[in-house]
Amino acid sequence: MTIDTSALGFGVGEHAVYAANPWQSRGRLFAEGSSPTRSDFQRDRDRIVHTTAFRRLKHKTQVFIAADGDHYRTRLTHTIEVAQVARALARALKLDEDLAEGVALVHDFGHTPFGHTGEDALHAVLEPYGGFDHNAQSLRIVTKLERRYAEFDGLNLTWESLEGLVKHNGPLVGPDGQGTRGPVPQPILDYCAIHDLELENHASLEAQVAAIADDIAYNTHDIDDGLRSGYLTFQMLEEVPFLDKLMQEVRDLYPSLEASRFTHEIMRRQITRMVEDVIGVAQTRLRQHRPESADDVRKAGLTFASFSDELAVTDKQIKKLLFTHIYRHPDIMRIRAGAAQIVTDLYHAFMIEPREMQSHYWYDTIQTMPEHVKARHVGDYLAGMTDTYAIAAHRRLFDHTPDLR
């Protein structure tokens, strides 16, 4: 994909006309005065970083349970890497970097302990009460569950940050009024009833670059962690022509390079090629559609920041590689089964005896709540747990806790 280097925003302070403008934000649900030193999007970013939910990410699984080794990605290090890629894309496209970074930093707030395994287990037990969706849970955290401010629950983020959180992967409602990926989670519908996030439209370009940055980061770094763990080998990477070409390029330049440096040279090239591909695609689509505002981007009916057709094929090939050799490896599946048991056991234990949720601020009133409200509170509590806290809680309540090594 060809890039127009003359249009890149490196070192340029001004935003493009299609960028979100922090000085013309649609505002917050609860009105606040402006800051003399920070834009509204900078304030959002700062609020996100200072949350309990952000700190908890350091002990939540990305792919490998934290106990497997100190050098594997956690949900926190993954989030930081996504934010770095998102800022790079935003800078190149002359977008608001603070909004792009904020969406990247908050996008995984709703993840449960033990990654997608924990989410699947929590969804199964909550299915009679509407199920569980990590994106909807992220919204609940920043609009309700974080209790830091005297005048409101949540963080009172701007409309643009909340829109980016909810819609960074595209519209949630189609032209027919139906959910584009199944029913829209009820927490999102409930919030939109009081603060409409326009679920039928795309999100800002800042949110779009945060979404594609997520793909770039985990495609690359799950390979890195897979090689470190031994579940992947360089020979397996040859299954993907894109990766095979990168490896040959590195071998030609450095014939005797040690394995760890060889891995890093592949990974840095992979990130660079993918970032440059997205920039080229976005520039082409921006020239074709010529949006004059952020709202034009939202209503254009397409995603501006995505892979080219060629890299989209590579993206699917990499995901297949990761699923085949890591995510569905028998060792990982055994660990996943144990993690799912921990989450399921804790849910039932807390539903039977809510006081086992030690020091939780509402546990003394939970016995009088309707069953569906009680279940959602237990789900909130479980979703907020780190891997280490969930394991410790299970050991406290049960005679046997699955070994996740």
Topology:
Elements lengths: L39 H10 L2 H5 L18 H18 L4 H10 L8 H12 L7 H12 L13 H9 L18 H7 L12 H25 L4 H4 L3 H13 L5 H31 L4 H5 L10 H19 L2 H23 L18 H14 L2 H11 L8
Helix pairs in contact: 1-4, 3-4, 3-9, 4-7, 4-9, 5-15, 5-16, 6-8, 9-12, 9-14, 11-12, 15-16, 15-17
Helix content: 55-70%
Strand content: under 5%
| First-residue to last-residue Cα separation | 43 Å
**Continuous helix count:** 17
Query: What pattern of helices and strands is seen along the backbone?
Result: HHHHHHHHHHHHHHHHH
What integer is the average pLDDT? Answer: 92
What's the number of extended β-strand segments?
0
The assigned structural class equals mainly alpha
Poorly predicted sequence stretches spanning 5 or more consecutive residues: none
| CA radius of gyration | 22 Å
How is the main sheet built?
Answer: none
Categorize the overall geometry: globular
Task: Characterise the protein shown here.
It is a single chain. The chain is built from 17 helices and no strands. The protein is mostly helical. Among the domains are: 124 residues, no CATH class; 67 residues, no CATH class. It is globular. The model has no long low-confidence stretch (mean pLDDT 92).
Characteristics:
mainly alpha, 0% strand, 405 residues, single chain
Brief summary of the model shown:
The protein is mainly α.
